[in-house]
Amino acid sequence: MAKSPDTVTRTKGREIKEEFLSGSDIPIKRVYSPEDIADISYDKDIGLPGEPPFLRGIHPNMYRGRLWTIRRYSGTHTPEETNKLYKREYELGQTGFSIALSVTTGYGLDSDDPRAAADVGVAGVPVDSLQDMEIMFDGLPVESVSTAILTCPVSILPLTAMYCVMAEKRGVDLKQLNGTSLNDIMTQTSMSNWNVVPPPHTMRLAVDLIEWCCDNVPKWHPLLIDAYNYREQDISAFQELALLLATAIGYIEEGKRRGRVPLDRFIRRFSFDMGCHNDFLEEIAKFRAARRMWHRIVTERYGITDPECMKFRLHVQSSGCTHTTAEPLNNIIRIAYQTLAAALGGAQSVHANSYEEGLCLPTEQGMLLSIRTEQILQEETNIINTVDPLGGSYHLEWLTSELEQKTWDYLKKIDDLGGIVATIQSGWVHREYKEAILERQRRIASGETVVVGGNKHVLPTEPYKVPLHRANPNATEIQAKKLQKLRMERDSGAVGRALEKLAEVALSDENVMPAVIEAVKANATMAEMCGVFYKAYGVWRAPMSA
Questions:
Q1: How far apart are CA 99 and CA 371, in angstroms?
Q2: Which of these, 181, 276, 314, 451, is most buried using a 10 Å CB contact count?
């Protein structure tokens, strides 16, 4: 009679660790067998790709039918320079754009605001008006590629409106326009403490955008729940997934309460963004578990039967917080493994970071390497030949279910605390982040978490230098001059009337997006439009604890 795997494990003798743990501190055995997945039903819990519960992928043929989108999060200096960057990326084979916005734009400031002077164009592209959006996408095929606009509720409304107005002026039918708005309440309210609209009002504006897109831009993804940013606070894989699902539930509950759009239409174009960290198999398990859990929430919690609503549309980005500033070329290897995990996990869109992002914005060299990383995976490795190639592994199926259960438990804790808005308002989410950040730093300092070149195999001196990206020191002046010219040439009366209408609607129950569209067409600036919301709702400070 064959020995059980556990018996064999105990007789194998010395191992290099007393205990082997996943990135989420899940104990891992030496070997897995059919006994470990005896409770898993293939038909009910795994199934075929493109069929419920979508564990193995949301499409029947996955990458055999369509490769994942290569999408880099980028933007630099000025709209003019970003236009050149996007054209270069497109020529290299990038198949979608993600706008990395200047911090100043994300916070709803114009580039000539004295508070913005030091930050304009430093970490992204400033967009002050419709004119900047037009410049940024001049000569690019917005009718055939998708664009992700990555910022939070409040500033995401004018920016989405600018993109739509720009496309419509170029003759693109909004019914056919494809793209994504980040629009995630968590990204700003739980990770920023400046110029934040109170969470309930943030949720109101976010849902206004979703409802407007359902009626006017049906192919647009009006909500990208950006758990990548949550994970960058050093929380675990299951915490990241639970917070993502809790945020989605919060949006659905608000849409259900308002009752303006049927739930199946409301959530049909939801999309999700997750980080990919260093624990290769756990990250793949996380992506698979996310699809099965989303299917269960949509069908069991909300009784929705539309298969399109059950599909967990996933963008994955390699993890910035795992990259090092010491020996930055090592990050090329980390990024490649993380990108491979994203593909094996069934992502629809992938962003491979540039290796030098711990030091600066991507250089031309870094941009090229990140695109080539994905192209080599797609064209040379043959991982696209079969769907979910790791499916059926005893260990992976067990780990997927184990991670899922830990996620359900953490999600219940959030539900018991009143849901995502309540946990933001109370500061609970912020405390979870704080504890995770401190714990990871403790483990790195103690050597429990190994960082090659950082706390192990450390060289006495830096072995090489890498090229660095330098910000354009004239970006603030360039943008300020454009704003001055815009204000002189536009119809000030039309701008004033549009902003008055927006202020009126912001204090009513009406959807604000039609008024935002009119303000954009009148050439109102980002600060003028966002300022209406700050005045109407006030500014919120997160309850931070020592």
A1: 16
A2: 276
